[in-house]
């Protein structure tokens, strides 16, 4: 049996049901993307709605 370390996990994995790809939370890079993506999305929506000039 081959044992894999956490840092050898793929960054993206196919979701169980459907054909979507999702961030793999067991990969450190994937976990960082899971945390950072919603923060960036919320800040972007806030900036667009508050009328900050471009």
Percentage of residues assigned to helices: 40-55%
Distance between the termini: 55 Å
Number of helices: 1
Uncertain segments are none
Strand-residue proportion? 5-15%
Number of E strands: 2
Helix and strand composition category: alpha+beta
> What about the largest sheet?
2 strands, antiparallel
What's the Cα radius of gyration? 16 Å
Please give the order of strands in the largest beta sheet: 1-2
Q: What is the averaged pLDDT score? A: 83
Which series of helices and strands comes N to C?
EEH
Multimerization status: single chain
Outline, from the CA principal axes? Answer: elongated
Summarize the structure.
This protein is α+β, with helices and mostly antiparallel strands and 54 residues long. It has one helix at residues 28-49; strands at residues 12-14, 21-23. It has 1 helix and 2 strands.
Key features?
alpha+beta; 11% strand; elongated; 54 residues; two-stranded antiparallel sheet; single chain
Describe the structure.
- This protein has 54 residues and is an alpha+beta fold.
- The chain has a two-stranded antiparallel ribbon.
- 41% of the residues lie in helices and 11% in strands.
Topology, please?
Elements: E1 12-14, E2 21-23, H1 28-49
Antiparallel strand pairs: 1-2
